[in-house]
Write a structure and sequence with these properties.
The protein has one domain: P-loop containing nucleotide triphosphate hydrolases (Rossmann fold). Helices cover 38% and strands 19% of the residues. The protein has a five-stranded parallel β-sheet with strand order 2-3-1-4-8. Helix 3 packs parallel to helix 4. It is globular.
C-alpha cells in the first residue's frame, strides 16, 4: 500500500504542531526541528535558503516508508516544486486558519521545552503539571526567542508573503485542501483531521 503524505500549513501559533502530534500512525517531518538539528539558527524569524531546506527534507522523507505529515514544508513555491521533481506527491493539505489576534494571544502565553520542543501554556489550557518542567521529558520550559512580538510579526509577514500563496498552487495541482477553523477546541480539530 502506498504511503500517504499530508501537509499541515497555518500561520505561526495556529496550533498545527500540536495537532500533528495527535495524529497516530504518521511520522512528523518538522522543518524547524530538522534545521535546528543541523545547526541552523531560526531565532531571527526568516527563512533558510530553499536549496538547503529541500535537500534536508527530501532526504528525511526518503529515509522513511511511514505515512508522513510535513510540518513547515513547503513554505515556498520552489520547495513545493522540489517535491514534485523528486516524485514525492502530496495526498492532502490541512490549512489551520486562525485569526491574528488569537495568534498573538497564543504566542504571549506559550512555553516550549528546550529538549523535546513540546508546547505548554502559562494559563490553565495546557499548563505543565510542574511549573517550568516539561511533562514528557523533564526538560526546562522557556519562552521561544522567535515569540518576541517583533520577531513574531516578521514570521507572520513571511507566512503571508511566501506560504499562504501556496493555497493557489495546491489548487492548481488538484491537491485536496481541508480548511480548519483554528479557534475550535482541539478535540474538534482532531475529528476534522
Amino acid at each position: 500500500m502506498k504511503r500517504k503524505i499530508l501537509i499541515f500549513i497555518g500561520a505561526p501559533a495556529s496550533g498545527k504542531g500540536t495537532r500533528i502530534k495527535e495524529c497516530i500512525g504518521y511520522k512528523q517531518v518538522s522543518v524547524s526541528r530538522i534545521l535546528r538539528k543541523n545547526g541552523y539558527n531560526l531565532s531571527n524569524g526568516g527563512l533558510v535558503d530553499d536549496q538547503i531546506v529541500n535537500n534536508l527534507i527530501i532526504r528525511e522523507i526518503r529515509k522513511s516508508e511511514e505515512n508522513i505529515i510535513l510540518d513547515g514544508f513547503p513554505r515556498t513555491e520552489n520547495q513545493f516544486l522540489a517535491l514534485l521533481k523528486n516524485n514525492i506527491f502530496v495526498d492532502k493539505v490541512f490549512y489551520i486558519n486562525t485569526p491574528i489576534e488569537i495568534l498573538f494571544q497564543r504566542v504571549r502565553n506559550r512555553l516550549t521545552c528546550i529538549n523535546c520542543q513540546a508546547s505548554f501554556t502559562k494559563d490553565t489550557f495546557r499548563r505543565p503539571k510542574i511549573d517550568g518542567i516539561c511533562d514528557y521529558c523533564g526538560g526546562k520550559l522557556v519562552e521561544r526567542l522567535d515569540d518576541s512580538e517583533e520577531l513574531f510579526k516578521k514570521r507572520l509577514d513571511t507566512f503571508e508573503k511566501h506560504t499562504k500563496p501556496l493555497i493557489r498552487i495546491f489548487k492548481e495541482y488538484n491537491i485536496p485542501i481541508i480548511y480548519i477553523d483554528g479557534t475550535l477546541p482541539p478535540s474538534e480539530i482532531l475529528k476534522l483531521i
